[in-house]
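Consortium newsletter contribution from the modelling node. Members have asked for a concrete example of what our holo predictions look like. Here is one, prepared for the zinc ion complex that several groups have been discussing at recent meetings.
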Amino acid sequence: MLKQISLWLALSAVLTGLANAADYAEFTTPGLAKGQITHDDIAPLIRYYQQQDWLEVTELGRSVEQRPVYLFKIGQGERKVLAWSQMHGDEPTATAAIFDLLAVLDAQQQAQADKDKDQDNSLTDWQQQITLYLIPMLNPDGAARNSRYNALGIDVNRDAVALQTPEGQMLMQAAKQIKPHYGFNLHDQNRYHGAGDNKKPATISLLAPAYNEAREINPSRHAAMQLISAVKPMLDKAIPQQLGRYDDEYSVRSFGDTFSKMGISTVLVEAGGNYNDPFRQQARQLNLKLYLNWLALISSGNYRDYDLSGYQAIPMNNSGGMKDLIISNISLPKADSSGVLAKVDLAFNAGGNGRGSVVLDEIGDASIYGAYHSVDASGLQYSAGKAYPLTKPLTLNTARYIQLLAEGYSHFSGKPDLLTNNSGLPVAINPPGVKSRWPQRRSSTTFLLSNDNKVQLAVVHGRVIRLADASLLDAFGGN
Ligand SMILES: [Zn+2]
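And here is the predicted structure:
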């Protein structure tokens, strides 16, 4: 009963545009808070919804590797909305949010059915105005290999014109049959996008895609911009200075732009990074909130009260504006070691969704960037450190390793299998790029930072170890 009351409060809040994402925490579908979501993860959910009578679930078609792609149909209103997620297989956040939306609607339906036991019509308000079509995970083959592309290596979102992929054909066929008035084009963007000059990540970026090279605004694009203007206050409150506007350069082969050209009011949602949120749960909750708000706004038509100023005030995405780790104010030694040559910042990124190798991305003035993690190295001097030769078996515990680092060894040389690392800390064996007196772009991720010839911090493959307490700053767990 309590759950039902809180649901009604939450839903009435949505309809008045006041809902908080936290209101929906209880509808977070379990098992989807991870960096990669595959068809196997959603198959049991699809089976559950196939058994519910308040929506229709049909197989839209099959991927290259014959994985099924599903179309969910909810409601019976005249205004049609088509939303699709994970057309890029390695962009799963909105797929999770779509199942959260279904969980909200499922609970809403149960509550409504209890209320209307003796009445025929158990549709909720918006479902009389809107028919909502959802395609969760358009590219299950890409999802299976955690790849942007489909099984043929084709970017489905560059296939809107040529339609060479079954996945692209399915989406276009759905759009042509359904003839939606509104489209939600749901993606993830890399976590290095900042929101304008805010030095903060763009946790959500939005766009009303262009329909021609001139980026003109026709009535359908105007409506998409209004939908974005209408949700800006909610996002500004939820993620201050972390809302971005995606580049609107016309992309003739993309679905968003092509649907815009077809007269569908299309909004692009890009889920982005956030601090200490490797699986993008903040962006996931905000996606859900966006869908609920947009359904309410489309149902009521109230988005038409908004002008474009909100949309236009959203700062542009700042590509590369965020770094994984910035170590600032590092003193570099003079060539003759007689003193300090310069104080510089080092900015690091990690590839492979944060699980790949770390690279030194920039040396110098990193003050224009934001960072997920930052270390102030004022008073600390750079040195590459010495190699500890592996000539016989060596077992490292934490104390022994810290002792070696303190003695000026940053890495090991020789046969890797001679080293048994029980320290719980990263080690570098034969790392490239450690011989130089100064850090080198794209390579130096293993070095020492010292004051008065006392090593304070060791950076090993980009992981920062503080010698004082043997603690590790792992800045690269992000997604
Ligand atoms: Zn994408």
